[in-house]
Amino acid sequence: MIRPYSLPLIAILWLLFPSFIGAQPPTRYAFSIEEAMTFAKNNNIQVKNALLAVQAQKETNREITAGAMPSISFNGNLMDYLQLPVSLIPGEIFGGTPGTFIPVQFGTKYNSTLGFQLQQTLFDGQVFIGLQARKTSVDFQLKNLEVTEELIKANIYKVYYQLVASRTQIAILDANIRRLQQLEKDTRALYQNGFAEKLDQDKVSIQLTNLETEKLKALNSIEIGYLGLKTLLGMRPQDTLLLTDKLTESQLESELLSDTSFRYEDRKEFQYLELAKKLNEFNIRRYELSYLPTLNLTGGYNKNAQRRTFDFFAKGGDWFTTSFLGLNLSFQLFNGFAKNARLAKSKIDLRQTNFQIENMKKTIDTEIEQAKLNFITAQNTLKFQKKNMELAEKVYGQTRKKYEVGTGSSIEISAAQTDLITAQNNYMAALYGTIVAKIDYRKATGKL
User: Which band of pLDDT confidence, cut at 50, 70 and 90, is reported for residue 315?
Assistant: First the structure.
């Protein structure tokens, strides 16, 4: 039992020490790209919902299966006639005046019936088509799960390797900051010895501040990227995530472009539409068979007792048995053309799916060609930007040496520094662009 003074204490502890009451401590994770994919498969909310849709379809299939199985029910009732029903019998039967009636009461005050009823579907076209479509329905939901997983997978690839590439970005920024710090130190020494102006020192200080600000922005963008990746993986924001894979330019080279064995069936979206088409065809057959009659086997076994006093459980009382088997044939003669409308709509649905499949083929062809061109362009751009960055580093180094010996100006070294940063930014953009282009090409060809 909680004493009254305990409640405020619990509330205070909850406010002051939430981590000790109910809150889970942060978890540390270290993932390669494959480990990240496995974690997302088990924890991403979209994937979980798609998996639940598969389970829901399996339960629906169980319900469909139940329609083809026998149905057995038990009925029991007990009636106490407070007033027995009255029937009128013609008076002339008992010698009375013709045209008159004599009221009489039939039956007993207490009546009880116990019994079992059986119903088994022998033929129902819609039920049988439902049974045939069960596997396809589950496959359809499973394929939707695969499509969802592939979409999540593509996004995880892009964000994961963008964050891995950001290490290079930060390393470049750090290298630039160290260069400017050294340049600032050298310029200060030159100024103190009368070989440079105060303006030159101030310009270097401004560049250094700008670079440090750029690094802060980059670190903030990286942190936001990690939060986005955690969301994709299904992790909590407070958890710690370490990415163990590295990114090299050799990884961005691919032999995929020489692989011409692509088939439309390699794309999961195409497989998804093919299953949708199959379900449409099942639907048409279901509505076509709805024009046929249904046949059911029925049966029953009942015990009935009638008593003047409530003694159903006394020994020696009579219980009368009734049992039967029968066939029930049902055929709907007219339903306002509802069946015609359902059948016509199912055929329209099939035509729409066929159009979607044809459009998907054209879309896939376009995606592959675009992804191929983008991938080739991105690879070439990366090579050019790497050479350009290396050249800018060389120019900066030479310009700095000239500046240090007094044969170069602050304007030259400032321009060289600006060109170097621009070349580095272009290289980073080309690096990430190549990552995205490769992922898009693999996805377009169904090889992600």
Answer: confident
